[in-house]
Amino acid sequence: MIDPNIDPNLGIPVRAPAVEAVDDTILPFEVKTLDLRGRIVRLGPAVDAILSSHDYPLPVAKLLGEAIVLTAMLGSSLKFDGRFILQTQSDGPVRMLVVDYTSPAKIRACARFDAERVTQAIANDAAEPGQLLGRGHLAMTIDQGPDMSRYQGVVPLEGKDLEHAAHEYFSRSEQIPTRVRLAVAEEFRASDGGPHHHHWRAGGILLQFLPKSADRARQPDLDPGDAPPGVAPHAQPEDEAWVEGRSLVATIDDIELIDPALSSERLAYRLFHEHGVRVFRAAPVHAQCSCSRQSVENMLRSFPQTDRDDMIENGKITVTCEFCSSTYVFAPDEVTDEAEPLRS
Ligand SMILES: [Zn+2]
Fold first, then answer.
1. Residue 177 to residues 76, 86, 154, 208: CA-CA distances in angstroms?
2. Are 100 and 82 in contact (CB under 8 A)?
3. Which of 292, 291, 298 is nearest to 338 (CA)?
4. Which pLDDT tens digit goes with each residue over 53-81?
5. Ligand 1 centre distance from Cα of residue 252 (Å)
6. Which of these, 27, 48, 83, 237, could form a disulfide with 264 (CB 3.0-4.6 Å)?
7. Pairing of strands 151-158, 312-313
8. Cα 269 to Cα 277: distance, rounded to the nearest angstrom
């Protein structure tokens, strides 16, 4: 007897894609006939809360928004509790981006940049993501907690954008054919007839080719190795299923990734309906920082007294969290060393 609850090919309900778009979600999907897997990220209030808490110049906010989508996409695929940290360090006007995703579903982000160089880049029409980043590297770290080893993958940044860096990472480190698309936009909405309010929206898609045979995943841009000079390298044609998958992703417009009227399920269906697409339960994500008055107090206590004395302004020590811009104010005697000398 066949139990439909056991056989994954039986008893799977087939339904129409959800019409309603749900913001701040990550939708995993699968196209079995092409050996493709992927995720569609759609961010509304989460990306708006993060970018609005900083007063970054527009192109810097947009670049950080892309890093947030990429981090949500990759961090949400962790199969255990932990943190996924994406960090760039480079010589462009934006020196550093840090985005961290803490399972389950918390994300925060910040950027460090040279304001003068960013202004200049904008004036010179040279503020595209790759130009803002410049050269350096992108590191992705998986942290499973204090007793576990950390895993870090690093790829060079060479004046190109984060999509390009992600492709490099998956092709070099993981050897998985991958396409990533990231989109960020400002939305202007009139609320109750009042002034137009500005909101950030962002979205993205990750598509990976994961055939059972590793041979099929081989990509032609990998050097075949030690052929003698003069011998033409063996041309490895790309697998047709992957060519089809990446061609479909190439047809996606930015607007499809951020359109509040297009659900992630409908986007998946629009792209892959001819091949049969199956979706899994969408995961939520929200903007939440992990800072607290207690953690800031502990950090201040770890400094030497002379450093704390230097931080006193108008009789107070004020600390602003770089991620969420929360401000914590302490009276100097609240954060003196814990071990007080006893006096008789
Ligand atoms: Zn914070």
1. 19, 20, 17, 6
2. no
3. 298
4. 998 999 999 999 999 999 999 999 888 88
5. 35
6. 27
7. unpaired
8. 7
